Amino acid sequence: MMDDYVPGLLPPEESLDDEELGEDGDGPGYLPVDRPIGSLAWGLTADEARTHEPFSQRLAHEVPDIAAEEFGDGIGDASDTDGELIDDQVGYLRAGRLVWATQDAGDPSSDLWAEDIGIDRAGASAEEAAIHIVSDDQFEV
User: Fold this and answer.
1) Of 42, 69, 40, the residue nearest 54 (C-alpha)
2) Rounded distance, CA 110 to CA 95, Å?
3) Over 70: is that where the pLDDT of 117 sits?
């Protein structure tokens, strides 16, 4: 028996090593799908399980309406309101992982400083996915 054995922990010869984990040990992360995949399907409730799914719903599963997806509720196409705001200050390139950076003495006007280190293999949080890069020549001030 080993002298430095701690109950509840694997001995070093039985634990995973770097070759089994990969470079950093993290997987690619979980990215949720864009559409629900069965949580709204027919037959989940007891009443629906006793009856048949309506033919129109069954047909909608078989032949999807491409026109509805093509002309969906996009930005700026609201007809029953005063309109939607179109933000021209949203960049097209997504920023990567932001880490704390030191403040540059040449530009003391900002309170917060971060550096873009690129998109890593893990899934981004909602806050990270919302950050986009806006170039100076993309819009005129």
Assistant:
1) 42
2) 19
3) yes
